[in-house]
Amino acid sequence: MSDCRPDRVHGIGMHYSCRVGFHAHEQHIVQKLRVDFEAETRWRSLAQVDDETLGLVNYAEVDKAVGALLDTRHWRLIETVAEAIAALICEQFPVSQVRVKVTKTPADMPQVEGVAVECWRRREDFGLAPLPGT
């Protein structure tokens, strides 16, 4: 009997610099964020033909899209960043759901390595149709 768990892809340790924070001193500085994602997708049949052009999640394109998104504005909350990245991945890539974790190294808390938020979102959470076969 085969395992019924869905296929998953991961992006681990994607680092970006952006303007994020709601304190007055954060409004004019660039801070570091780490983004990790895990997405459910179906790639087994695509992997059997070993052809990257057949609708797999392109990690370089995810990285480029997230970087462009983070450059669009000053973000007040890392929760908003996580939600926006989840929407972007669900809307632009063949995934049925995604987990996004955003970790910020707070400039005003030198004793803290990071603070983080994490969310799970499905395509349907953004008004998108489910992927065929899911």
Task: Describe it.
With 134 residues, the protein is of the alpha+beta class. The protein has a single domain (7-126), classed as GTP cyclohydrolase I, C-terminal domain/NADPH-dependent 7-cyano-7-deazaguanine reductase, N-terminal domain (GTP Cyclohydrolase I, domain 2, 2-Layer Sandwich), CATH 3.30.1130. Helices cover 25% and strands 29% of the residues. The protein has three helices and four strands. A four-stranded antiparallel β-sheet has the order 1-2-3-4, covered by helices on one side. α2 crosses α3. The two termini are 19 Å apart. The model has no long low-confidence stretch (mean pLDDT 88).
- With strands numbered from the N-terminus, the spatial order across the biggest sheet is 1-2-3-4
The H-and-E topology, N to C, reads as EEHHHEE
Rg, rounded, reads: 16 Å
Instruction: Give the tally of β-strands.
Output: 4
Q: Whole-Å distance between the termini?
A: 19 Å
Largest sheet: 4 strands, antiparallel
Judging by the overall fold, what is the CATH architecture? 2-Layer Sandwich
The fold-level CATH name is GTP Cyclohydrolase I, domain 2
General form: elongated
